Amino acid sequence: MFKLETENSIKFYSPKNEVITKSLPVFYNKEMKLARDVTTYIINQLKPSRILDSMCATGIRSIRIAKECNVKEIVANDINPLAIKLTKKNAKLNKVSLSLSNKNLNILLYEEKPFDYIDIDPFGSPVIFIEPAISNIKNNGILAITATDLGPLYGRHPSTCRRRYNCIPLNNYFRKELAARILIYRSQIIASSHDKSLIPVFVDAGQYYIRVYFKCTKSKSNKVFKQHKHLFYNSKNLEYSFDYFPESTVHGPFYIGSLWDKSLTQNFNLIKYLKDESTLDVFGYYDIHKICKKFKLSSKIKISTLIDNLKSSGYKASRTHFSPQGIRSNIEIKELINHLT
Questions:
Q1: pTM of the model as a whole
Q2: Protein fold of 2-255
Q3: Longest dimension (CA), the chain
Q4: Nearest CA-CA partner of 101 in 48, 49, 56
Q5: What pLDDT is stored for residue 191 in this prediction?
Q6: Do 202 and 175 contact (CB within 8 A), yes or no?
Q7: Number of helices and strands (H, E) in the chain?
Q8: In this structure, CATH architecture of domain 273-340
Q9: Is the peptide bond before 15 cis (omega within 30 degrees of 0)?
Q10: Are 83 and 13 within 8 A, CB to CB?
Q11: What distance in Å separates the CA atoms of residue 32 and residue 119, rounded to the nearest whole number?
Q12: Cβ–Cβ under 8 Å, residues 184 and 241
């Protein structure tokens, strides 16, 4: 029924699942290891003292935090009793102390005293868990939210995105970043009803997930609202604007502000390109391969050379972790095309 796994220095038991599905009572997702690496990095940078791993499953995140970070208390919760039984077994195996909880998350968050850090990592959309987490989190606490319902967020299922996130998505070449901005927008709107502000301090995106770390503050959200904009997109020339222009379709609202607190990225090396792109406060990125295909450009310029050329011309530019063919820059697309011809 169980097999012994290893992640970093942690040995733990997980169910023998060949395929991960929502119907499984407990599972271990190897593809999320990098996300857990980032989690321990963020916790070590921000040093919260009381942490809630709200959906602990095998307990691997909680155990890694206990082993790799200096934290006073970690509450490992899961609604499934098998998950708690397995987490208890794995904590004992690794000789770490966890406070175990087998409750519905919404009930737990309303019953427990406030946490400094709450981790929400469901299978699918996190939206229904955001409000109770905001009600509980301490002032200046950290809320880490993962979304894996990428179909709606990427714009493949726009009606579902409108229901869950109150946003009209855009399925284009920088949809992965837009997905993060949709999640931020929806989370901020929910927080505003509690007179709280959620400020994104770190974003990372993997093949199967979008993850955003927020700092939660007790303040009215007027400044946050100014960073919510509709985007007008022209699919013919790939131009977009936050002001209406003809022959365009409207999408959003999106959060258009900064995605990273630079104090958290200046020494960050776990994800390639993220440190560099975090220094550029620009919206979106360009997928060079798709742009060349769209405009029938035969350019074979290397991305590194293109970035150097853009910098020499006075623009800001870097690679982006959102796309292997992408660059982040403050250049307009018409000028970018000139550099590709």
A1: 0.95
A2: Rossmann fold (3.40.50)
A3: 63
A4: 56
A5: 96
A6: no
A7: 14, 15
A8: 2-Layer Sandwich (3.30)
A9: no
A10: no
A11: 14
A12: no
How far is CA 328 from each of CA 63, 223, 240, 286, 321, rounded to the nearest angstrom?
36, 25, 15, 6, 10
User: Which residues, in sequence order, are CB contacts of 74 under 8 Å at separation 6+?
Assistant: 51, 52, 53, 62, 65, 66, 98, 99
Alpha carbons 97 and 236: distance in angstroms, whole number = 57
Sheet strands side by side (includes 210-217): 99-101, 73-77, 50-53, 117-120, 141-147, 210-217, 197-205
Distance CA 160, CA 146 (A): 17
Q: List the one residue out of 197, 198, 152, 192 whose CA is nearest residue 175.
A: 152
Q: Which residues pair with 251 in a beta bridge?
A: 231
SS (H, E, C) 36-60: HHHHHHHHHHHCCCEEEECCCCCCH
Distance of alpha carbon 106 from alpha carbon 121, whole angstroms: 14
Q: Which residues of 221-253 are buried (b: 16+ CB within 10 A; e: fewer)?
A: beebeebbbbbbbeeeebebeeeeeeebeebbb
- Better-predicted residue by pLDDT, 25 or 331: 331
Class of residue 5 by CB neighbours under 10 A (exposed 0-12, middle 13-18, buried 19+)? middle
Per-residue pLDDT tens for 175-189? 999 999 999 999 999
Amino acid symbol at 50: R
**Residue 29 pLDDT:** 84
CB 303 within 8 A of CB 233: no
Q: pLDDT value at position 23?
A: 60
Q: What is the DSSP string of 247-271?
A: S-EEEEEEE-S-S--HHHHTT--SS
- Fold agreement (2-255, 273-340): no
- CA-closest candidate to residue 145, choices 102, 97, 179, 103: 179
pLDDT of residue 21 exceeding 70, the answer is no
Q: Give the count of beta carbons closer than 10 Å to the beta carbon of residue 135.
A: 14
The pLDDT of residue 37 is 98
Residue ranges covered by each domain of the chain = 2-255, 273-340
Report the C-alpha gap between 83 and 105 in whole angstroms.
14
**N-to-C CA span, the chain:** 58
